[in-house]
Amino acid sequence: EYDEVNYYENPETGYFAMVIDDAYLLTSSETEKLIAEMKPITEYGDVLFCSTNDNPSTAERYAAAMCDKYCSYNCTIFLIDMDNRKIYIYSEGDIYDVITSGYASSITDNVYTYASDEEYFTCAQRAFRQMSTLLDGGSISQPMKYICNALFAIMLALFFNYFVVMRLSQPKN
Q1: How far is the C-alpha of 40 from the C-alpha of 129, rounded, in Å?
Q2: Which of 68, 114, 132, 144, by CA, is between 20 and 30 Å from 163?
């Protein structure tokens, strides 16, 4: 069922990279190129690209089920769920120690515009590059994290100022 176009096994680690494109988002040449992007991750664990048009559950549950079905304990999955219109990254084992849910959210924030523009190969390619960067000890851009932190700091400052002004504006007896 799987051939060299959509499957690669690392001879040194035994971990594999596999593309399961049930939504038919990629051409065969894009699948082959994507496997090449996924190969470095097989140094750390199994890696899957999945797409689906039929998911009666959530993206999170679907990705976990795919991990249980195909992967070892150390794995990461990039899912494009066309049914729920969501991209999602799921990791387990030692890979999760690096690609935490926070980093997974940052990666999907960084690549979702490609999926919105129906550039699914580029979306997955960029996601796997960022995963590989993290696994190799590098860092990735996290603009949404910094924006949220800045907004939180501004809100805290406003609340603090409000309470200081309220305290100072009370009449003294």
Answers
A1: 9
A2: 144
Q: Which two tokens stand for residue 44?
A: 């750390």
Crossing angle between the packed helical segments 120-135 and 101-116, to the nearest 10 degrees: 160
What tokens does 16 get? Answer: 């594999």
**Dihedral of alpha carbons 71, 75, 78, 80, sign:** positive
Interaxial angle between packed helices 28-38 and 120-135, expressed in degrees from 0 to 180 and rounded to the nearest 10: 10
Ranges of the chain with pLDDT below 50? 1, 3
Assign 119 to helix, strand or coil: coil
Q: Do residues 58 and 83 make contact, with C-beta atoms less than 8 angstroms apart? A: no
Specify the DSSP class assigned to residue 42: G
